[in-house]
UniProtKB/TrEMBL annotation:
InterPro entries: Glyas_Bleomycin-R_OHBP_Dase, VOC_core. This is VOC domain-containing protein. Residues 122-159 are annotated as: Disordered. It comes from the Bacteria. Residues 4-120 form the VOC domain. It comes from Streptomyces roseochromogenus subsp. oscitans DS 12.976.
Length: 159
């Protein structure tokens, strides 16, 4: 049974490591983690969240073609401030309102790979832990309301 998503890998062209570090470390707040010897010899970099719960790997690919459709969906807090931070680092976003229960936007990394950033705004059903989806009972999870959200802007539900 699948337990969790360990990492996502995106491709990058040769000699792009410094530009990618500027976005993934300086703008996104990820930390670069050491690669094992064999992948390290191939180039590029691996990154993780500060708590180590999620990783994003970048690997050299020739010929390189950026991912324009396929993308990681990265959950963030205070998405408006996060979007401003990305724009200040040269990665402006395009907002989209087609995903119910979320505020989200897409941007690209310095080599053109699509990145999606999401912040839940409403409750959504999730399977109870330890049960397979087919027999799962549903509980509800609610994120905290966005900063400054009035009654219409915040999530409200009871588990």
């Amino acid at each position: 049974m699948l337990g969790a998503l360990d990492h996502v890998q995106l491709a990058a062209p040769p000699a792009s490591e410094d530009r990618l570090r500027a976005l993934y470390v300086d703008a996104l707040g990820l930390v670069e983690i050491p690669k094992p010897p064999v992948p390290a010899a191939r180039g590029c970099a691996w990154f993780a969240t500060a708590d180590g719960t999620a990783q994003l790997h970048l690997g050299i690919e020739e010929p390189f073609r950026p991912a324009k459709k396929a993308h990681p969906g990265l959950r963030v807090k205070d998405i408006s401030s996060f979007a401003e931070r990305l724009a200040a680092h040269g990665a402006p976003g395009t907002w989209d309102d087609t995903l119910p229960g979320h505020r989200h936007f897409s941007s690209t990394d310095p080599v053109g790979n699509r990145l999606e950033f999401l912040e839940p705004t409403a409750c959504r059903p999730v399977p109870d832990a330890g049960r397979p989806p087919s027999g799962a009972s549903l509980s509800r999870t609610c994120p905290p309301p966005p900063r400054g959200a009035g009654p219409e802007g915040g999530a409200s539900c009871t588990p």
